[in-house]
Amino acid sequence: MNFTKQPSCADDQDIGVLRVEQALAQMYAALRPLTETEYVPLRQALGRVLAQVIVCPINVPSHTNAAMDGYALRGADLPAEGSVTLRQIGVAWAGRPFADTVPAGQCVRIMTGACLPDGTDTVVMQENVRVDGDWIQISAQERPGQNVRHAGEDLACGEPVLSAGRLILPPELGLLASLGIVEVKVIRRLRVAFFSTGDELRSLGEFLQEGQIYDSNRYTIYGMLMRAGVEVIDMGVVRDDRAILTDAVQQAASHADVLITSGGVSVGEADFTKAVLSELGNIAFWKIAMKPGRPLAFGQVKNMAFLGLPGNPVAVMVTFYQFVLPLLRYLQGEINPLITPTIQAKSLFTFKKKPGRSEFPRGFLSQDETGQWCVEISHQQGSGILRSMSEGNCFILLPETQGTVAAGDWVTVQPFSGLL
Ligand SMILES: Nc1nc2c(c(=O)[nH]1)N[C@H]1C(S)=C(S)[C@@H](COP(=O)(O)OP(=O)(O)OC[C@H]3O[C@@H](n4cnc5c(N)ncnc54)[C@H](O)[C@@H]3O)O[C@H]1N2
Ligand code: MOO
C-alpha cells in the first residue's frame, strides 16, 4: 500500500503551490486582451470599454454663463468700499440670452446657466443685493469675475478627454452626452461560457434524490458574470464523464473567449477537469496558496482561457473576485487597474492561522460609536457555507505572511460593495 502524502488543502506549506500574486501575474502574461471593436449607441456603452480616443468636438460649457442666480455686471463697476447702485436693464434666462451689450453703470438680472451678456464679466448673487424697483444696490464685498463659468472650462474643444481602454461608467456616459456624442466605438463584449461539473448536481425544477444537491454555483457565477458586463453562455451541468466533458470544452472553445467551470479540479477520483484540459490544451497551474480556493486551475485551449474554479460555493466566489474579475477586465481591454478599496479595521475576533497562504474569511464591517471601523468574522467559515457571503459584507484579507489574528489587531478588509 502506498501511503505517500497527497497534497491537501489542509497543508499550510506545499511545494509547487503559487502565491496569489504569482498566479495573477502568470495569467496576465499568458493572455492578450481583445482588440475587436463595434459601434454602439451611447446608453449601450455603459459597462463597456472604450476603443477610441474621445477628442472634444465642442466646448463644455459651450458659452460663458452664470453660476448663480443674481445680477450680471461689469467687474469694474464694483465699489472698492461702501456700495454702488446699478440700473437693471433686462433679464438673461438659461436658454434665452439677453441680446444687447450691458454698458457701464448698468446690470442684467441673470439665472444660473444663462449666457453672460456682452459687456459683463461678473455675477453677484441675488441674496447679496438690495433691490429697489430697477435699482440694484451692491456692497463692497464682491470680487470682479466671480460666479462665472467660462466656456470650455469643463471640456475644451479639441482636447482629448477619454483614452481608449477606459471603462464607461455613469460619469463617462454623462460626459459623452455633454459632448453630443451619440455613438461610441467599444471593444466587443467578452464571451464567457460556464458550466458546473458533478454527478450530484441537479438543475432547478428537478427532484432531489438522496445525496443530490441543487447546482447553486451556476447561479452565483451567472450573477457575477452579468455584473461584470460580459456576454454569458450558460452550458448547464456537465456530468463527470471524460467524453462528455471533452465535448463540452471543445464546444466552448469554438464559441467563447473564456471558459469557467466549477468543480472537478481537486484530487478526487471523478475530478476529470484537469485531465481533459491538459489533453485539449494546457494547464498552467492548478494550486494556489490560498483558502478557500486552493485548487484553482488555469490554462488555455486554443485561444480560449480556461478557469477551473473549485466546486465549493464560497471558493467559487472568492476565486472569482480575486482572480476571474480582474482577468475579465484585463481581457476586455480595460487599461485602468481594478481598484478595490480596502479599509483598516479593528478585529473583534480571534482567528487561528499559520503563515504560508493567503486567507479570505468573510466578515461583517461596521463602525463603533466613535466612528472606528471594526470587523467581526462570520461564525461559519467552511467553504461550503454560502451564507457567510450573503450575511457578511466584506472579505478579511489575511496575507500569506500573516499569523494568528488576535482581537484588537488591525486587519485589512475589502468591502463587497462599490460605488460606481
Ligand atoms: N483530498 C483532498 N480533498 C480535497 C482537497 C484536497 O486538497 N485534498 N481540496 C478540497 C477543497 S479546498 C476544495 S475547494 C474541493 C474542490 O474540489 P472540486 O473542485 O473537485 O469540487 P467537487 O469535489 O466537485 O465539489 C466540492 C464541493 O462543492 C460542491 N459543489 C460542487 N459543484 C457545485 C455546484 N455547482 N453547486 C453547489 N455545490 C457544488 C460539491 O457537492 C462538494 O460538496 O475539494 C476538497 N477536497
Ligand atoms: O479551499 Mo477549498 O477551495 O476550501 O474551498
Write structural notes for this entry.
There is one protein chain. The longest helix is centred in the last third of the chain and has 19 residues, at 313-331. Strand 20 (297-301) and strand 21 (304-309) form a beta hairpin. Helix 3 (217-228) packs parallel to helix 6 and helix 4 packs across helix 5. This protein has a six-stranded mixed sheet with strand order 7-4-6-5-9-8, with no helix packed on it. The protein contains seven helices and 27 strands. Mean pLDDT is 93; it is low at 1-13. The protein folds into four domains: 20-36 and 189-331, 3-Layer(aba) Sandwich (Molybdenum Cofactor Biosythetic Enzyme, Chain A), CATH 3.40.980.10; 46-60 and 153-187, Molybdopterin biosynthesis moea protein, domain 2, CATH 3.90.105.10; 65-140, Molybdopterin biosynthesis moea protein, domain 3 (Molybdopterin biosynthesis moeA protein, domain 3, Beta Complex); 343-415, MoeA, C-terminal, domain IV (Beta-clip, Beta Barrel), CATH 2.40.340. With 420 residues, it is an alpha/beta fold. It has helices at residues 20-30, 170-178, 217-228, 242-255, 273-280, 313-331, 387-391; strands spanning 37-41, 54-55, 65-66, 70-73, 83-92, 106-110, 122-125, 129-132, 135-139, 148-149, 160-162, 183-187, 191-197, 201-202, 213-214, 231-238, 258-262, 282-285, 290-291, 297-301, 304-309, 343-347, 358-359, 362-367, 373-377, 394-397, 410-415. It is elongated. Bound molecules: ligand LQZAQKY5 and molybdate ion (MOO). Ligand LQZAQKY5 binds next to helix 3 and helix 6. Molybdate ion (MOO) binds next to loops.
